[in-house]
């Protein structure tokens, strides 16, 4: 079964845990790592002939257009990860629309692709911000992968459908592809995800989760990763025990775990796994080649 691999293309100073310590006014003065870290991801995917959806932060597209063009040229889908990496539920609908439109323009300017797949920063489409889906549909997005159907202090919609489903909005339908979870006994749901769960737990945790989703649920799993998670040398900016644990633990193990994942499972982009939801304005990554 073909699973979804998604890469949130951002710098090591963009995660919410880090933004609590480093605000946007300092971003331009920090040592950049995104080109180096993304090359590690691209080379790993090339070695295994795997494709992914890269959810590109507009801020990154504005500063590293060549990097975004290179990702598209290699045949990966170019999606959108907002412009400034702000939590959706912390914005007004007007602010969210402006941020999304600015991100789409930056991505189009960088590589000529109009993204139709969206991922919110820190999975911040929750019950408080479901209005964002209508704005995304209005902006031309046909796929969203921003809902984590778990309970978490910062994100998640417990009880939300665990597999891809088409949601109706007043501006049209949008395919929601939630982050991978497994069903436990007594109605409980556990995150599989990728990211921190891949870093913190043994390889077999993520692998068993994907296997269960593929064989028991008979559905693709949607896994995510950030380029900075393959970069053990990244500057540690997050403060506090929990933030540092969530952000930096297990960094040195991710490269080997990802190699095993793409060897054991087949991965591709949202566009490949859900081609019927391409939308009228889709421009595939290949169009940039
Ligand atoms: Zn992010």
Structure description:
Strands 1, 2, 3, 10 and 11 form a 5-stranded parallel sheet that branches. Strands 4-5-7-6 form a 4-stranded mixed sheet. It contains 11 helices and 11 strands. The protein has a single domain (2-288), classed as TIM Barrel. The chain is 35% helix and 15% strand. With 289 residues, it is an alpha/beta fold. Helix 4 crosses helix 5 and helix 5 (93-111) packs parallel to helix 6. It starts with a strand and ends in a 16-residue tail after the last helix. It has helices at residues 16-19, 34-47, 58-63, 65-73, 93-111, 131-138, 195-200, 203-215, 241-248, 254-264, 270-273, and strands at 2-9, 53-56, 77-80, 117-118, 143-144, 165-169, 172-176, 181-183, 189-191, 222-225, 266-268. Bound molecules: zinc ion (ZN). The site of zinc ion has 6 residues, from loops.
């Amino acid at each position: 079964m073909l699973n979804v691999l998604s890469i949130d293309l951002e710098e090591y100073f963009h995660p919410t845990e880090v933004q609590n310590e480093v605000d946007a006014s300092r971003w331009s003065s920090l040592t950049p790592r995104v080109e180096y870290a993304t090359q590690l991801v691209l080379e790993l995917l090339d070695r295994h002939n795997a494709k992914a959806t890269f959810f590109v932060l507009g801020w990154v597209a504005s500063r590293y257009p060549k990097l975004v063009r290179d990702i598209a040229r290699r045949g990966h889908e170019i999606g959108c990860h907002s412009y400034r990496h702000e939590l959706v539920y912390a914005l007004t609908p007007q602010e969210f629309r402006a941020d999304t439109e600015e991100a789409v323009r930056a991505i189009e300017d960088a590589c000529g692709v109009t993204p139709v797949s969206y991922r919110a920063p820190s999975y911040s489409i929750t019950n408080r911000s479901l209005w964002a889906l209508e704005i995304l549909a209005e902006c031309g997005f046909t796929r969203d992968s921003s809902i984590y159907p778990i309970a978490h202090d910062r994100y998640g919609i417990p009880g939300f459908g665990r597999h891809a489903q088409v949601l109706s909005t007043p501006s049209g339908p949008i395919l929601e592809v939630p982050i991978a979870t497994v069903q436990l006994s007594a109605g409980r749901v556990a995150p599989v995800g990728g990211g921190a769960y891949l870093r913190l737990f043994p390889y077999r945790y993520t692998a068993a989760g994907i296997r269960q989703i593929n064989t028991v649920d008979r559905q693709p799993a949607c896994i995510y990763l950030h380029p900075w998670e393959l970069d053990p040398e990244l500057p540690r900016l997050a403060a506090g025990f929990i933030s540092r644990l969530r952000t930096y633990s297990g960094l040195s193990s991710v490269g080997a775990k990802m190699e095993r994942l793409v060897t054991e499972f087949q991965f591709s982009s949202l566009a490949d796994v859900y081609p019927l939801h391409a939308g009228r304005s889709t421009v595939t990554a290949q169009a940039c080649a």
